[in-house]
Amino acid sequence: MSEVQVIGTRAPREPLLEVEQLHVSYGAIRALHGVTLSLGKGEVVALIGANGAGKTSTLRAVSGMVKPHGGKIRLAGADITGMKSNLLVPRGMAHAPEGRGIFLNLTVEENLDLGAYLRVDAAEVEKDREYCFGLFPVLRERRRQLSGTLSGGEQQMLAISRALMSRPKLLLLDEPSLGLAPQVVETIFRILREVNQKGVSILLVEQNAHLALSLANYGYVLETGEVAMAGPGKELLQSPEIRKAYLGE
Amino acid sequence: MTAAGTGEPLLQAKDASIEFGGLKALQRFNLEIRQGDLKGLIGPNGAGKTTAFNVLTGVYRPTSGDILVCGQRVNGKKPYRINRLGLARTFQNIRLFKALTALDNVRVALLSESRPLFSADWLARMRREGGAMATVAAGLDAWNNYYDWWRALLLAPGFLREEEELTRRAEQLLEVMGLSHRRDEEARNLPYGEQRRLEIARALGTRPRVLLLDEPAAGMNTREKADLMVLIRRLKEQFSLGILVIEHDMKLVMGICEQITVLDHGETIAVGTPEKVRADRKVIEAYLGDSYLETHPEAGQEAAR
Amino acid sequence: MSDFIQHLINGIAAGTIYALVALGYTMVYGVLKLINFAHGDVMMVGVYFGYATAFQLGRVARTTLWGVLAIFLVAMAGCALLGFLIERFAYRPLRDKPRLTALITAIGISFALSYGFQLDFGPLPGAAPRAFPEVIQPTEWLVIGDREVVVWNWQVISLLIAAALMVGLQYLVFRTRFGRAMRAVSFDHRVAGLMGIPTDRVIAVTFMLGSALAAGAGILYAIKDTSVQPLMGLYVGLMAFVAAVVGGIGQVPGAVVGALLLGLIEEFVVGYTASSWREAVAFGVLILVLLFKPEGLFGRASAEKV
Amino acid sequence: MPETAALAAPSILPIWARGVTPVLVAAGALAVAQWLLGDSPFFVYIASIVGVNTILAVSLNIVNGMTGQFSIGHAGFMAVGAFISGKVSLAFGDTAIAAIPESASDQVFLVGSLLAGGTGAALFGFLVGLPSLRLRGDYLAIVTLGFGEIIRVIVQNTPSLGAALGLSGIPQTSSLFMVWFWVFLTVLVARRIANSAHGRSLWAIREDEVAAEAMGVDTTAYKVRSFVISSFFAGVSGGLFAHFVPIINPNSFTFVKSMEVVVMIVAGGLGSTTGAIVAAVALTLLPEGLRSLFTALGGGNADLAQKVDQIRMPIYGLLLVVLMLARPQGLFGTREVWDVLPRWMSRRRRSAA
Amino acid sequence: EKKSQTSTETPTPTGGPATGTAPQGGPPPASDVILLGEVGSLTGAQATFGISTRNGVELAINEANAEGGVKGKKLAVRVYDDQSKPEEAANAATRLITQDHVKLILGEVASTNSIAMAHKAQEAKVPMISPSSTNEKVTAIGDYIFRVCFIDPFQGFVMAKFAKENLKTTRAAVLKDTKADYSQGLSDVFIRKYTEMGGKIVATESYAQGDTDFRSQLIAIRSAKPDAIYVPGYYNDVGIIARQARELGIKVPLLGGDGWESEKLWELGGSAVVGSYFSNHYSPEDPSPRVQNFIAAYKKAYGSVPDSLAALAYDAARVGIEGMRKAGADDSAALRDAIAQTKDFPGVAGTISLDDKRNAIKPAVVVQVGDTTAKYVATITP
Ligand SMILES: Nc1ncnc2c1ncn2[C@@H]1O[C@H](COP(=O)(O)OP(=O)(O)OP(=O)(O)O)[C@@H](O)[C@H]1O
Ligand SMILES: Nc1ncnc2c1ncn2[C@@H]1O[C@H](COP(=O)(O)OP(=O)(O)OP(=O)(O)O)[C@@H](O)[C@H]1O
Ligand SMILES: [Mg+2]
Ligand SMILES: [Mg+2]
Questions:
Q1: What's the order of all strands across the beta sheet hosting E374-380?
Q2: Can you give the pTM of this predicted structure?
Q3: Do D204 and B152 touch (CB under 8 A)?
Q4: What is the pLDDT of residues D293-303, one digit of tens each?
Q5: Which of B16, C18, C168, D338 makes a 20 to 30 Å CA pair with B182?
Q6: What residues of chain B score a pLDDT lower than 50?
């Protein structure tokens, strides 16, 4: 396995998510071979990498959508390797998956309520729904529309709102800015900052390396299923390799 | 094929509008694409861009207005007919043939290539004539197809050579899109970005004269986007196409498009060169957002004037 | 004229029974998109459970209210268990596999049950039909003229039950949290998991509900037709499937209306032409219906946006 | 998925010969088989049943497997073929072509009646195919199912078709050769479609109709065509059936029969012709195999031997479940021997060189 | 063809005969055993038919063996299921002939399946006796095909005659089973004869085997106000029909054929069937020792009163065995001739004489359904 190039130093934090030597494969295709990363409480960690590097697979493994073939995943100290997704939600995990995973046969509102499936505090849920509508007014307009007929971007907004609805401790986002208008992208990153300040930790997969790394406390660069580089967001942004490979400079 | 007069418009939308139960998704939409054009279509989410594509390619029938491909009115024509007139597209929510290999995905698109009873170009020309000619062309097309079935069943020598020829062309297209290494992988197993490129390869397979790209750069990192810009320009030349791009990445749109149309709530709020559009107040409010001015001061000055 | 009315009544009655089976069917169907071929056979098994219970209870006890309740409960519980087992061992392992795969296991189960019950050794009942005890004494509920038009108590009973169930299920599916979960699971169970929905449990419960309903329906069916035999599930199950689809996949009211339609068509074909044309005409009409409403009577046009 | 390798496969042959050679070879081989095994009635009968089911499976696979249209009324087409060609043969029962020996002229008439049956079925296939333009998935399934039932009922009520008793007296002119030659033809056609642009168009429809349309595939036409082709062969199989089963009766073409065929193609691996063949053969022989097995086992034990034949069907059902659990993608997935074999052979050739 | 009963309790395997089966394994039977073949519907829609046929045959063979077999050889039978499908019946017959080399084939119940088998038997020149296929076509197939039951037309005639002369009815309705060729045959003849005798058919309705709701047909019949309703169907349908007819206030007697004959009729029909009439091959009430012994033996082995299917199967087997006793089993032509000679054979289901069409000539009895048993009413001769 190739050497991980670590730059800069990381401010010590109480670990929330620890991934060790993660191996994932789909049938014959080996997507991840030995990914190791960690995320501290209240941290924003960015995963960047070329197409097919394994970013999505990493998130899938963490949120229990795919069973890893090897390695350990720990959440707040507890081993959650290979646990079913629905058992992770109560532990405070929320995942906005690649391809958005909207329930196209349900209305916008129903999708949001499903985000809060395990919550019982109706009043609070109501508040949060309003909060999301506040973030994305379009959704309020379309609350009764079948989400199948939403535009790509609108669906993306819905996906993110839905993830927020569960009031997670750890938020996994797979390319949240995908297909969104520049304005909305900014909104989203503003929101991420907000929720992070509220103490939510975020594991962020993003193609827009610039935005991602400037938000993240720490970043990992994946290449063909392995961590190639790691370091504080800002410093990664400065590193020439990154600027060349991912910022196209 | 290439020789087609650069001058005359290959794709025209004239006041095309469509509603979905009250919702005016697209209103009086106008557009013209000629060979060699590279135009952009932008606008906030839900503005009606993809809907515009759907109307142009015949997925939806415009509730009013006309769509003309190569001068021929195609309202309510079936998508495959419109495609055969020379209009190809990619999809925002990727729609590859998931279980087929990358190669086969492209080969599907190549079916119009089979060397038939009546020459394809010939028919294509007839179709563009429109009217009775088009009907005749459709009829002959059917005969071509039956004839072709038998060649396939009897393994006519010509057919075999052709199959190999098709495969070669498909491989070339994969090559062009830099997907040769995925030749025999099932489409569903490709990572997101490569799936997008495969869609483009597939679209090119149909020998289009106009290519519609719906957010081709989505899911690509800045570097890959840069490559894509180069690629799109190259495709335009190499296949002598007219191209219309939907994209939210301003760097890309502003970078490659000569002309940009901006939609908002289905209405066209601005048309013009990148500079002009970028400086347009309405556009900034509806779409780019003020911060865009901060990051791109030059636009700010223009807007100021 | 009086004949016509009588046919109308009987048609509705017959339709009601189909509806009861179809309701259970459409639930499973709505959630798993699985053509649960074994549904009819589960029903058949349920009827035999009821039959056995009735015998245990004996002549007197089984006609008392409690006896009847016991018969229904035992049958429904038994089938719920059966349904659970089937789902657990024959369908769940195939959940992420192509849909038709599960269809084949369903067919396999169906064969195993319907042919298995034809065996005449061990505890198995054998192929011969049995008279189903008159747990509900058939009595006229309404008589017009010289018995020209008669409405029977069991007809009314099953109609009421069906109506109640329809409303109940509709509420369950569209108004409750569990219902929302069901619909989410039916669309994409992996993402549903991400919402914290216990997918396996939702599906299992749905299955048990469906099977229990089948058992209940089956007993009413047996009461109506006064007999029970191993192959009874085949035709009823098929018709339930047809009704469910024609009504609109996963649409609770659709299943009921589809079933009533089916029942009426059959009744009138038999009443006014020859019964031998029954299936032909019934399917003919249904096909026409589908041609005009390709998504079924209550089906919404699929929300797939390009 | 078909491979270019598949086309390169018989590359030993000169290009112009590739079309016909396989047919000639098969004909020869079958003639020999006929000569060797033709006089064992039991074997011939079983082989014929197997052959008919194989044709059914392979042809249904064109609609269900390749085009992804869910048809569960295949027995209906078989019935149409059976009764049409049966009637034709009865009509020409005692006419014969003077010029050639009688047995030969019988075969001529047989082929004629088979084609008649096939064409008739194809016609119905066209009719049933039309709704597929509007209907999707299970809604279409209901239509096909309904069609099958309607056909059955019509036959049941038509005295000239034997009504409930069934149509008997059809000249039993079918033969091992005839049945398996048609099996071969069906497979050949299925395979050549699969390896052509047409096959790919069908797959495209199965995968994503919208995209297929957008890529210039005339989905409506292709869907109907797949129905027509598959029902033609179903009809032929029915015709063959009518010429070796002494009496054909509506009860032989119920929707349970249709289901058995669906089972075969799924068990074999949807979309894989090879799988369809293997599954058809295996699942048809299974009950017969169980019979031999049980008679062998139960010889001593009176009671078991009594029940043997009753136990076959439940066991058959359970075996289906087990099979699907063991190989959910079906025996062959979507692969074909002739996709795997050539690569393997060419590898051998290379290593040999 | 008709249906049978199987015991409500499960039959006691040990009580079942032990020797009545094939010898070990597939290979041709050891020379000291004469192997018979039987094909029946042990599964599928008509499973009940095959099972009691099988029992009847078995019983006959065991008795024959007890009497010392045929020419010092023991008899054995191999039974195959045809799932009530003609193609399977043909297959089973072929298998019996070519693989098991049976000397005689017994079966089937459904005429369709018998015809399928008969072709194979005739081709191979193996004698075949159908116990209960009543369609004329069956024996017409060839000189190796026999039957021990009377054919449809006769039964139709019997009931028509009885209805007109004994019951003095003038208006009759018919409710027939369109899926059963048997029911078709009977009702056609009944209608013809009854009208010839001056009666009036006021309604003809139909149902399909296995239906369970006959109310709509019965409503139609009710409004035609007949004196009697001819229902030549099977007991399990008839039972339900009777119930629903009474339920609809139809009080006139139902008339039927041998298909009614079964204990199940009472179980299914309850009080509703009491008082109706049907034609039959024999009456279990028949005091003659041969009938009573048969019934006793059958009860002992299978725990239920034999229905006429069992009785006919028993007769068929015995006719065959008788033939073997005369001509031996090895020369099939001789065996065929021997069977063809059968005259005044004392069957439990009536005395059997085969005519030149290889059909049994025998009188029919008409019985009335009592509270628990069928009471003998009249004998009607051809
Ligand atoms: N469902 C799947 N089945 C098979 N292979 C898959 C699947 N999903 C991903 N892969 C493979 O796993 C590898 C990693 O894919 P992954 O989606 O994790 O990359 P990624 O970094 O998310 O790429 P992208 O930026 O395009 O989303 C790729 O080679 C891809 O081909
Ligand atoms: N089939 C439909 N039924 C109802 N509403 C629809 C349908 N298709 C699109 N819409 C609505 O029309 C509007 C335009 O949708 P469209 O997909 O064209 O937006 P877009 O410009 O592509 O946005 P994005 O950039 O997010 O893809 C959306 O608000 C959507 O809700
Ligand atoms: Mg990804
Ligand atoms: Mg869009």
A1: E200-207, E171-177, E228-230, E254-256, E277-280, E364-369, E374-380
A2: 0.90
A3: no
A4: 777 775 544 45
A5: D338
A6: 1-5, 304
